């Protein structure tokens, strides 16, 4: 009975979460799948960055490059 309740809670949690949480879980799963040490390190840092700032490393880099280009034009 406890197992059935756990399954129901898991299904409920999956259905009620938004897309951002699913993306967060999928980015964390790449940490376990990859065998490359550098890929594991990047995924771990990316996951930590996403948890603390709600943006991944690529988004931070994009905004930084965009800001530098705007400063050079001005």
Commentary on this structure:
The protein starts with a helix and ends with a helix. The protein is elongated, with a radius of gyration of 18 Å. The chain has 74 residues and is mainly α. Helix 2 packs antiparallel against helix 3 (37-53). It contains four helices and no strands. Helix content is 86%, strand content 0%.
Keywords, please?
86% helix, 4 helices, 74 residues, mainly alpha
Question: How many individual domains?
Answer: 1
For the biggest sheet, the summary is: none
As a whole number of angstroms, the C-alpha radius of gyration is 18 Å
| Fraction of residues in β-strands | under 5%
| Count of beta strands | 0
Q: Give the low-confidence spans.
A: none
Secondary-structure element order, as H and E? HHHH
Shape: elongated
Tally of separate helices: 4
Describe the secondary structure blueprint for this structure.
Elements: H1 2-16, H2 19-33, H3 37-53, H4 57-73
What's this model, at a glance?
This protein is mainly alpha-helical. It has four helices and no strands. The protein has helices at residues 2-16, 19-33, 37-53, 57-73.
């Amino acid at each position: 009975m406890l197992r059935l309740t756990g399954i129901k809670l898991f299904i409920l949690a999956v259905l009620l979460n938004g897309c951002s949480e699913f993306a967060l879980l999928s980015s964390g799963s790449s940490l376990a799948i990859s065998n490359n040490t550098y890929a594991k390190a990047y995924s771990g840092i990316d996951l930590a960055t996403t948890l603390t700032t709600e943006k991944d490393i690529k988004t931070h880099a994009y905004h930084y490059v965009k800001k530098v280009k705007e400063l050079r034009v001005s």
